[in-house]
Amino acid sequence: MSEDENTPDSPEDEALDGEKAPALYLAEFDTTHDVLHAAEKVRDAGFEKWDVHTPFPVHGMDAAMGLSDSKLGLLVFAAGAVGLVGGFAMMMGMNGIDYPIIIAGKPAESLPSMIPILFETTVLLSGITAVFGMLALNGLPRHHHPVFYSTRFERGSDDKFFISIEVGDPKFDLEKTRELLASLHPTHLELVEETVP
Amino acid sequence: MSAHEPIAGIGETHLLPPNMTFNDVTEAVARVTENKAPRGWWFLFIGALLFLGVLNAALGYLLATGVGSWGNNSPVAWAWDITNFVWWIGIGHAGTLISAILFLFRQKWRTSINRFAEAMTIFAVMCAGIFPGIHTGRPWFDYYMFPLPNQMSLWPNFKSPLMWDIFAVSTYFTISFLFWFTGLIPDMATLRDRSKTRVRRMVYGAMALGWRGSNRHWRNYERAYLILAAISTPLVLSVHSIVSFDFATSVLPGWHTTIFPPYFVAGAVFSGFALVLTLLVITRQVFQMQEIVTIKHLDLMNKFMLGTGTLVGYAYAMEFFIAWYSGNPYEWHVFRFNRLALTAEGFDGTMWWAYWAMISCNVLVPQIFWFKRMRTSIPVMFVASILINIGMWFERFVIIVTSLHRDFLPSSWGYFSPTLMDILLYLGTFGLFFTCFLLFIRWMPMIAIAEVKMALPAADPHWVPGHGDEGEDQDHAPATEPAPAE
Amino acid sequence: MSADHNHGGDNLYRIPADNIWANAWKLAAVLGSIGLIGSAFGAASNPERFAFSWLFAFYAFLTFALGAVFFVLIQHLTVSHWSVTVRRTAEFFAAGIPVFALLFVPVALNADTLYEWVGHGASHEEGHDDGAEHEGEEHSSGESLVGASTARAQAPQEADAHGADADGHAAPEAHGPGAHNSPQHQLHGELLEHKAPYLSLTGWYVRAGIYFILWFIVAFFFFRHSVQQDEDKSLDHTRKMQAFAPAAAAIFTLTLSFAAIDWIMSLEPTWYSTIYGVYIFAGTVITIHALIIVVVLGMKEHGLIGSAVNIEHFHDLGKLMFGFIVFHAYVGFSQMMLQWYANIPEEIIYYHERWHAEGWKGVSYFLIFGHFVLPFLFLISRVTKLRLSLLSFGAMWMLFMQIVDIYWFVMPNASDGFSPHWLDITSLLAVGGVYFGVVFFIMKFFPLIPIGDPRLERSLGHVVT
Hints:
The complex is a heterotrimer. By secondary structure, chain B is mainly alpha-helical. Helices cover about 65% and strands about 0% of the residues of chain B. Chain B has a two-stranded antiparallel ribbon. Chain C is built from 20 helices and no strands. In chain C, α11 runs antiparallel to α12 and α13 runs antiparallel to α18. The longest helix of chain C is centred in the middle third of the chain and has 32 residues, at about 200-230. Chain C is globular. Mean pLDDT of chain C is about 85; it is low at about 1-10 and about 120-180.
C-alpha cells in the first residue's frame, strides 16, 4: 500500500534564522485500520515519546498504544465533592448562621430547600473541572508543536492518520526508527525538522 | 456480511450515504465558513439586526420608564416576561438533550445535528436570561441575587425558588457553553489547518488551542466529553424542574401540582426539538447539507417530537384528571372554567382560546407523525414544527395567566392584555437569537465534523476499504480484536 | 467471531435437564407453597392485616413484571441491538404477568377492608346523583365559588381529623354509612362522594380487568413473536414488534399510571399527586434492570448462555440502572419537596404519616439512604459496574429496596405506627414464589437468547464504541 517512502523532506523553508534540527518522524496512513495496527507495532517496539494523530478518536487506539485509563474522573469527582460541601457551607453560613431568616414557616436551615442549589454547585464545579482538567492533562493550550512544521500534517485534521516518534525518545535512532516506520507501510514518511534559534 | 450492515428487511437503512468519505464531511461543513455567504444569508442577517435594534430600543425604553409599560397588573402579576423566559429556556433544552442524553444512549445519528442544537441552547439561554434580569424593574440592583450581603447585611434567601433559578440558569449556561466549546476544539483545528489567509489561521488557531489530534489527548478529551454528558443529563432535568418549582412550590391552583418537574422537562425538549427542526430544514437547504443531515435524521427527530408531544399530552391529561379527583374546588375551577371552558352553550370564559391553542398545537398536531409520509415530508414537518413552537409558548402562557387572572376572590378577577412593549421585547429577542445564530452558521462549523466522521463506517478500524459499500471482510482483522471469547 | 455457535443445534441456549436452573421452579414452588399456607392461615386469623400484606406483596412483584414489559417494548421502540441477548430474560418475566390476574383475587375480595372509599358504597348512588346536580349548578352559574370556599375552609380540619383519627382510617367500619355524625366525617364523606364516579367498586373491577387484559396482550404479543422467530427466523416478526411498540408504550404508560392510582394511591383516597404514575414507573425500571443483571448472571455462571452476554452488556445494564436510580430519586424528591414546601394539609398528610407516625421516620431515612445515596455512591464508579460480583450485589440490593419502597407506599395505611408483621413475609413468599415459579418453569421450554433475532449477531459482538 506504500506509494512513496521519501527520505526526510522538510517543506517549511521560509526565511527563518537558525539551524534546523530533526524533531520527529511523521508516518502517514490512509485508514484507521492501518494506523491502529501500525501503532501496535510501535508500542511493542517500546517507544515512549510517540503519538498517534487522528482527525477523530479511533476506537481501540488506547489499547493499541498501551495507554492507561484517563485520570480525569477522579479529579471531577473531587471537584464535585468540593462543590457540594461549598454550596452547603454557603447556604448554611448565610441563611442558617450569619443571618437566620425564617420563611414560609420553614426552619432557617432546612435541607429540602437546599437540595436544588447543592446540585447546581456540584455540577458547576464538576463541569468546569472536566473541561479545564482535560486541557491541563493534555498540556493545552499550546501554541506551537514540531508536527505543525509538516505541511502534510494539515490533513491530519481532515482524513489522514499519523504516527509521530520524537527525537527525544530514548530508543530513537535516525536510521533504525526510520526502518521500523517504513516496515509499517505508511503512505508517506518524513523527518520533520524544527528550527533551533 | 458485517454485523453492522443495515438489514433492509426490518427497515434499517444507512444513516449517511455509504460512499461518503472523511474528506467529503470536512468539505461540506468547512466550505460554508470559507465560501461567500449566500444572498439569503445576508437578507436574514439584516432582518435579524433590525430586530436586534428593536430589542435594544425596547430595553432602553423599559429602563427609562419602568415595568409599568408592560401589561402586567394585579391580579396578573407575571405574564409575558416569565412566559418568554420559560419558553426560551425550554428551547435550549433540545440542544443539551441531543448532545448529552443521546450521546449516553449512543444514538449516532445525533452527530449531524448536535453542534447546531448546542449553539441554539446557548443563544436561547442568553435570550431567556434577559427577562428575569429586567423584570425586577431596577436591573442595576440585580446583584442582590448574588450571594453577597446587601446594605442591611441581609443575604439572599436560598429558600426561594427564584434563587434556585439563578443558580440553575447560570450553571446551565456555563456548562452548556463549556460543552459546546469542548466539542468545537477539534473542528477549529480542522478549520485552522485549511485556512488560506493569515487572519483565519490566527483566529481559528487560537480557538483550536493547539489541538493536534493526538491520541493521548483524545483519551482525556473523550473522558471529559463523557463526564460532561453525564452531568449535563441531570443538569438539563434540573433546570426546567427548577423553573417549574417557581410555580409549583406555591399554593396557587393551576400552579401547584407535583407532575410539573418532569412535565416541564418533556415540554422543553419537545419545543426545543421543534425549533431545531424549523431552523435545520431551512439551513440544510440553503447550505446544501442534505447529505449530512439526511431525511432519516429528520424522520428520527419527528419521532422524538411525537414521543415528547404525547408525554406532554399525558401530563395535561393527568393534571386535568387529578384536578377533578382531588376534590379541590379551586383547582377544578381553574381547569374547568379558566382553561377548558367548554359548556353546553359553547366556550365560556375569557382565556379558553389559549388553552385550546395549546392542546391543538402540542397534542393533536404531533399525532400526524404516526405516519411515515408525514415524518418525511419537509413542508409538513416545517409547518408542524412552527405550530408546536406556538403551542409551547401558549402552554406557558396558559399556566401563568389563566391561573392568575381568576383566582380565589371573584372581586379581584381581571384580564391580561399585552402592551406594545411586551410584544416588541419578545420580537426583539428573536433579533438577538438570530443574529447570534446566523453569525454562528456563517463562521463556525455548524456540524460536528469529527463526530460525524466517527459515525462513518470507515471510522471503525475493522473496516477495510476496497469492497464497495459492503464494508465486510473480517479476515484482515487479526486475533487481537476484542471479540468475546468462549 | 463467536457468533458461529449461532448456527448450532436446537439445544443451543436451552436449559439442560441436569442443570440447576431446570429445577429452579421447584424451589420457587416450595417457597411459594410455604407462603401460601402461611398466608392462608393469616387470612383466617388476621384478615385485615392479611389484606394489606397481600396487596403490598402483590404490587411489589407486579412492578417486576411491569418493568419487564417496559424493557421489552422500549428495546423495540428504540430499535436497540445491544440488548438483544438479554431481552429474552425480560420476555420471560413479562410472560409471567397473567399470574398476577390470579394473585389479584385476594386483593379484589378484600377491597372493602383495604379501601376506605368502598365503605361509601351504600350512599354511593345518591351521592353520585347529588354530585352530578351540584356540578350542573356549577356549569350554569359562577355561584359555586361561595360553596366551594366553605368546603375549602373546612378542608384542613377534615385532613387533620383524617390524620389524627388514624384508627378510623385503618378500620373502615368506622366509615360505614352510619358513622357520619361529626362534621369532619361529613366533609370527608362528601369528598369521597365527589370521587365516587371514579372510585366505585364496579368501575374499579372493570378497570382492573382492562389493565390485566391489556398487559396480557402486550406481553404475549412480544413473547409469541420473539419465540416464533427462534424457529422461523423471519424478519416479519421484528417488523411487527417494531410497529406495535409505540402503541404498546402508550398503553403501558396509561395502564401503569391508573393501576397505581386505583390500587395504591386510592388507599389514601383524599390524597393525590399528579406525578404518582411517574414515581411508580421509575421504580419499575430500576427493578427490571436489577432483575436482569441478577438472573442473567445466574444463568451465565451455570454455563447456560456461554459468552452471549458479555461484560459490556452488564456494564450497560448497570449504567441504565444507575441512571434510573437517579431518576427515581429526582421524581421522589420532586413530589416530596413540592408538597413539603406548599404545606397544604390535604397533601402533607401523606408525608406526615410517613415521617411523624411512630417508626416510619426510620423507614423513610432508610429509603433516602438505601434507595439513593448509598447505591449512588456505590455504582457511580465504573469499577463497580465492571466487577460482576459487586454489580450483582448492587442489583440485589435494589430489588430489596424496591420491595421496601412499595412497603413504604402501602403499609402506613395498615397500622398506626411502623409494625412489621409475619404476614408481610409469608405474602412475599407466596406471591414471589408463585410468580418466579411460573417464570422459571416457562424458561425450560425456550432458548434463553432470542436466537432468531436479526440483530443477534451485533449484540453478541457488543463492544463499547
